[in-house]
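Standup notes
- HV: blocked on the assembly model, inputs below
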Amino acid sequence: MDSPVIRFQGAKKIYPMSGETVEALKGVDINIYSGELVAIMGPSGSGKSTLMHIAGLLDSLTEGKYWFDGEDVSFISRDQQADIRNKKIGFIFQSFNLLARCTAQENVELPMLYQRPAPSNLHQKSMEALRMVGMENRSSHLPSQLSGGQQQRVAIARALINDPTLIMADEPTGNLDTKTGKEIMNTLAALHKNGITVIIVTHDHEVGQATQRRIFLRDGLIEKDEKQAQVSGLIVS
Amino acid sequence: MNIILTMIRLAVRALLAYKVRSLLTMLGIIIGIGSVIVMISVGRGAHESIQRQIQSLGANMLMIFSGSSQKGGVRAGFGSAPTLSVRDAQAIERECPSTLYVSYVLGTSAQLVAGKKNWGTRVWGTTSNYNQVRDWQVQDGEFITDQQVRSASSVVILGSSVAENLFDPGEQAVGQQIRIKNMPFRIIGVMQARGRTPSGQDQDDTVLVPYTTMSRKLVPNRLPGVVHFIMVSAQSQDLVEVLKQEVEELLRQRHKIIPGMTDDFTVRTLDEYANMAGETTNTMTLLLTAVAAISLLVGGIGIMNIMLVSVTERTREIGIRMAVGARRRDILLQFLIEAMVISIIGGILGTVVGIVTAMIVSGLAGWVAIVGLDSIILATLFSGAVGIFFGFYPARKASCLDPIEALRYE
């Protein structure tokens, strides 16, 4: 395998909280390689959200080292983080996080607005991304006119628009019924098959079953890191 | 460029989503910019009409007043000492090369009686070229002739206001008899209407008689040859200042004023009148400027307030934008653009309100409102500046949000 997309070494995160300090990550070492489909699991308070935020460059480590895509990003500025998020990371959230006043297509185009230099064929690219998630005939709908599953598809299209190295999904099925959740998982699996690295943060074991590798966190430390050859039948191709 | 256009589009959409709120936010800017526009256009119109009034006193004209009388330290003011005479006027005509016309007047107040109507007004005794110096023509009949001045004829020219007050509309005034101080006078002409002087006097509320008639019959106990003031017109506008110096020199010589003594006369050009009249408009301009400044301040604070609310309401949106790669500067720019869109739309509405108000005000005051493109551009730029100034704090606040906190915000 080639160099890891994500590499943590002794990763620590300490939050100050009402006078005390909370150690959310207590020294974590992880390597995630290109093309992997990984689930980060654990109960609430285990540090999985913190890990996701730091891996997604929404937050920084207090101590330790972090290499993203071969680059040391342990102590870069907020603007540098923003640029890497823009170019290399696509986010998918539990609550979809679409802009309510923008159409599906405008939501998909959002990351491109912040791309430097500004991309040219904005509309063409966004339509392509919507087609990939099967939402091309809903491009001019507002999020309020779409079902939860459809909104999450738009969010996936938005995550894909800048050809990211990594897709970071935070409880992507948490707000969806089982059937729709499965469909979303299928979409993510299909992306993975196309060679995109996908990290899913979840406490849903069924979702975890659908991945090749599961990292369990507990109290800020890695409890278990297991690879499974046999992926569960949740994914129907 | 793309991103800025998109941001403007989004800002307009955000404004349309809350129409009433946006309009109320803009109100301060609308009033502020409106008063700026009213201030500039009415101020300009007023200035223009004052200039026109001053020009109406006569083209390229100088006024020479007799100086203040001084008895035991009491100075009575211009015209109180009888220091100017017909001979001074004649000397100016003879010896000052820049002179075009010279005329002089001697005045008194008198009651006029025509049939059953009567009217109190100012009577001026003057010469046959008074109408040329003042650049003021008769509308009906003819002006006083040299012959009538020489023979001290009992003839009178009416100002249009006097004619209106003594005669019914449509009634022919020329040729009729009126009585001034109980002496009969024949009306030989009615002057064109001239309007008010910059100081508000009705120039048409006056009658003219030959100078000699005035000095011999109406004010017989005055010193012979005395005049109230002399009017001199220069041959061209460029020569007005030259003429002023010529006249001053000549009169000093004639009145035997040696250097160090105070002149016993005063020479005024119309420019000096214009400057005096300007002070009135300046006061008004100052007042409107204060109104404009206060409403722009209040309007700006309104914008700041609503933008702070907007930043709080849209915390999650800010988080989403940050997550997909917006830098702090992008967020700052977005909220600044929104503040500017509010204030510039407010500025445009204010410009419209201002133009309408200026027209109403000028219509009521009898002025012409002059709305220049420059004032519209100025107003727009100014409102944009208000948007930037008062939008900066909320925009900065938005750009400093923590992306995770913002994404979690409910």
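- HV (later): unblocked. Chain A touches chain B through 27 residues (CB under 8 Å). The two ends of chain A are 26 Å apart (CA to CA).
- Next: hand off to the docking folks.
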